[in-house]
Amino acid sequence: MHHLGRYFIFLGSLFRNREKMGVYSKLVLDECIQIGINSVFIVSIVSTFIGAVTCVQTAYNLVSPLVPLTIIAVIVRDSTILELAPTITCVVLSGKVGSNIAGGLGTMRITEQIDALEVMGINSSSYLVLPKVLASMITFPMLVILAGFLSIYGGYIAGTAADIITPEDYISGLRSDFKPFSITFALIKSVVFAFLISTISSFKGYYTAGGALEVGQASTAAVTNSCIAVLAADFLLAQLLL
Amino acid sequence: MIEIKNIQKTFGERTILSGISGKFLPGDTSLIIGGSGTGKSVLLKCMIGLIKPEEGQVLYDGRDFLTGDEDTQKAIRREMGVLFQGGALFDSKTVLENVRFPLDMLTNMATSEKMERAQFCLQRVGLENAADRMPSEISGGMKKRVGIARAIVMNPKYLFCDEPNSGLDPLTSIKIDELIREITDEFKITTVVITHDMNSMMEIGEKIMFLYQGKKMWEGSSSTITQSKVAELNEFIYANKLLRDTKA
């Protein structure tokens, strides 16, 4: 409870005594590159393979000749959009981005860079953390959209290359019974996950005390706590919105 | 002038500072000395507002820093320059950007003016040729000098230096000390230096405060420190064999 209280106080401090908005624009852009563009490669690899594996495993479980093959594409599409693209992508990002944020802020803390900002009268939490939170909330949905496309495409490549499904059946399956709200749901999840990952990781990094060992511990804690928060939020959002 | 009155600070059960008072005058380089763990850095952090003491006052030219309103605190902060132990340079910025940073954040100066001022400060610490280097590409001594340049870029009235000689060879230490003294004289700054370096003490200690186990045990200058009758201070000063031999 103590940590939860500190976390909410920390969130409040992000918006108190902010700097001028002009200060944040360049910082947000820099963070978008750091958080978003630098994550495109890992997200692409993970999502393509997840789509491919989902397609192959769905086909393996479809033993009844009465079930049309187009159902494979339906399952790949829905599981990708509803769960795999937003959740798995964000779990991967909590490892990559979360540890990066916590490690960076932790190092700034132990090398007195945060103290230097405070002494100048700059709200260090707002200056350092708010751009990361905003950049995450901008770039995570984009990465999730990319992951969704690549995952479905991965399923297509794997399905057609292994002769599991014809291209026509796969595309027909993708088009059948599509619910546009699934996209909205995925994007809502990505924004919520982005907020959780960036703020939890920043919180862990910002309050690091000690030395290099503690920075490593803060990074690990940031990743584990972010993952747990993402999975809990995933369940809650599914209950609330579906 | 900076005046501290009855500063008390505890961490849990442990008393770190116990009723520390003193005055630091403009144009003087005042030293706070003492062994490791005596509360020097905590006192400095109390003075610059990074730690809030349980009791006491920190007055900057009569303005109470700890209980003053937000505007007063902001105004005092803008008159402060701080050199941190490791320099505390921002890793992602070049040397010039580090020095220019306070101007970017806290002033409405034109870009050309900011550049001119930052370059002047870098020149003042002898690092005009390192402007485009990253902090990871420069030595410890250079980092301290960049830290000093950043601390003076806003024309501060008060300069605080936390162990400016730590991790430096004796020659570089002397150069840093000389730089601090020159800047203090040149800009008539109130300078407070935390150190346990004997060379610094003898070179720049116009006024010295000795802390022992969180208490102020002695106050004086470099010319009177060797005549002190305080056993803890003598033990601290003559821990060095060379000085012991000289005394003998």
Distance between the termini of chain A: 30 Å
What is the CATH level 1 assignment of the largest domain in chain B?
A: Alpha Beta
- Sketch the topology of chain B as an H/E string, one letter per element: EEEHEEHEHHHEHEHEEHH
Which consecutive residue ranges of chain A, at least 5 long each, have pLDDT under 50?
none
Structural domain count of chain A: 1
Radius of gyration of chain A: 21 Å
Q: How many helices of chain B?
A: 9
CATH topology of the largest domain in chain B: Rossmann fold
Distance between the amino and carboxyl termini of chain B: 39 Å
Helix content of chain B: 25-40%
Q: What would the principal axes of the Cα set say about the shape of chain A?
A: elongated
CATH superfamily grouping of the largest domain in chain B: P-loop containing nucleotide triphosphate hydrolases
Level-2 CATH architecture of the largest domain in chain B: 3-Layer(aba) Sandwich
Assign the structural class of chain A, choosing from mainly alpha, mainly beta, alpha/beta, alpha+beta, or little secondary structure: mainly alpha
InterPro entries (chain A): Permease_MalE
Protein name (chain A): ABC transporter permease
Pfam families (chain A): MlaE
Transmembrane segments (chain A): 35-60, 133-159, 180-201, 221-241
